[in-house]
Amino acid sequence: MLDKSNVFEFTAETLQALRADAPASASVIHFNNAGCGLLPRPVLETMIDHLRLEAEIGGYEASAARAEQVRDFYVSIAELIGCRPENVAFAGSATHAYSKALSAIPFEPGDVILTTRNDFISNQIAFLALRKRFGVEIVHAPDLPDGGGVDVAAMAALMRARRPRLVAATHVPTNSGLVQPIAEIGRHCRELGLLYLVDACQSIGQYPIDVEEIGCDLLTSTCRKFLRGPRGSGFLYVSDRVLAEGYEPLFIDMYGARWVAGDQYEPVESAARFEEWEFPYSTLLGCAAAARYALSIGLEPISRRTPALAARLRDQLAAIPGVRVLDRGAQLAALVTFDVEGWDPQRFKSAVDARGVNSALSFREFAQYDFADKDVEWALRLSPHYYNTEAEVDTVAGTIAELAKSAPR
Ligand SMILES: Cc1ncc(COP(=O)(O)O)c(C=O)c1O
């Protein structure tokens, strides 16, 4: 299948092998990798195999029999993001990981959360919920004048002036191809000793990620998007610094802590502190297989090909009358967003679906600041991945051109 001995190259042969591992690619153009990537065959087989073992010998017995592979979830994710396995906690979703991380911070009235105008919708809602319950203040750093993402100098000035309890940034938001300068933000956080939480949900599996280089204390992701893991999975990275300082989630269970006396518990040393006793083991093993699959190709080659396919698509869409490409920024990821004159969003997406192209819709509600700035109510999002082809990009651009020309009003 994949040649792991050399630096991976996307050639006609390797692409064919990759596509053979993703059977849906024969029948549909899957440009919804920012929603959920296609499971590679080894991931699917690993999961089915484990479910079968559970049925054959018992659920507890199966996870015990596969202890080494279970451990590989932590080892492979650690390899993917540049930390120790002990810094990784499994989570049921990126949002689950994020709320666990937030729950570990003992917010007090008046504490400041400093974030950006492009942080993910559920993160923004979580900050508002913290404001409602604890009276924290939410401060949004301004964007650069050209809409190309957060103004890091202004954000750093706010860090110095407001001394936030938490700095939070989303690497790539769900609603556009923007790539935020998370490592630059991180340098300021480290300089000032501020707690830094990064949402890397759309960048894991698309770009090399190094938590040391980013300088974050906490980092969250799903496994189902560009990493191509199963649904219902994600992880939380917890730095040694955060573990040593004794941060623990609000609700900690018998896996995250030891009940050492009637009135006393002790959190465990590792990021397992943020996990619970029960795991969906076939999912966990599927995530390990997905991480190994991505590592076997290499995040460098992926990060060259995947955004380049999106750039090719963006260029073609930008030339279509009635189509407005909405992505702004010096560096753009493989999330291509646009709206089309004369179409209702749902009808437009249905027309795209009917032509065998998987996509996703975003609405104003998903990005209150960004979509207000761009004065848009909705956008269609197309998100190719490395296993897609240039020919598919060209076909999709042709499909959008045809639909734009035949707008119902
Ligand atoms: C940037 C970003 N963060 C977080 C999430 C939430 O991920 P999950 O659905 O796994 O909770 C998403 C999902 O689209 C996302 O795009």
UniProtKB/TrEMBL annotation:
Domain of life: Bacteria
Residues of the signal peptide: none
The keyword Transferase is assigned to this record: yes
GO molecular function list: transaminase activity
Keywords of the record: Aminotransferase, Transferase
InterPro entries per UniProt: Aminotrans_V_dom, PyrdxlP-dep_Trfase, PyrdxlP-dep_Trfase_major, PyrdxlP-dep_Trfase_small
Domain Aminotransferase class V stretches: 30-395
Keyword Transferase applies: yes
Protein name in UniProt: Aminotransferase class V-fold PLP-dependent enzyme
